[in-house]
Amino acid sequence: MSTIQVDVVSATESLYSGEAKCVFAPASTGELGIYPKHVALLSVLKPGEVRIETDTGIESIYVSGGIVEVQPDVVTIFSDTAIRASDLNEAKALEAKQRAEAAMQDATENKDISATQAALAESMAQLQMISKMRGKKV
To answer: Residue 20 belongs to what domain range?
Structure first.
């Protein structure tokens, strides 16, 4: 079976670099399924889970958003924040969600509302990944 090179890079480190059977990424218009020989593509990512399927299993990485660049033999994901699913902290994500919800109550200007909605989306995406790993619903 053919594979595709996958690189996931955050602002501070490279989280994954290797061959994969396929990659699933949370694009702004819906989930992208990327297989070897995929057509070239550039897309915006929303907060969520990047799943990398390899011969040995599935690697799950949380991204806070970003960009995915797809070439027929390479997928590169750039994100300001990327965290391995196993390293997500439920207490911190819950705290961030509560802060964002409280800030939504006080937000009055469009820029405040947009920033607060983005923070809420990021914390909810993290909590969904944590729940998925534990086999429970959010």
So the answer is: 4-85
Q: Please, what is the average pLDDT of the chain?
A: 86
DSSP letter at 5 equals E
Whether residue 41 contacts residue 68, with contact meaning beta carbons closer than 8 Å, is answered with: yes
Residues in Cβ contact with 1 at an 8 Å cutoff, skipping those fewer than 6 apart:
21
Q: Give the 3-state secondary structure of residue 28.
A: coil
What band does 119 get if pLDDT is binned at 50, 70 and 90?
confident
What pLDDT shows up at residue 137?
Answer: 47
Are residues 34 and 45 in contact, defined by beta-carbon separation less than 8 angstroms? Answer: no
Chain centroid to Cα 52, Å, comes to 11
User: Residue 64 maps to which CATH number?
Assistant: 2.60.15.10
C-alpha span between 4 and 39 (Å, rounded): 12
Sequential DSSP letters for 117-136 = HHHHHHHHHHHHHHHHHHT-
74 and 109: one domain? no
The one-letter amino acid at 34: I
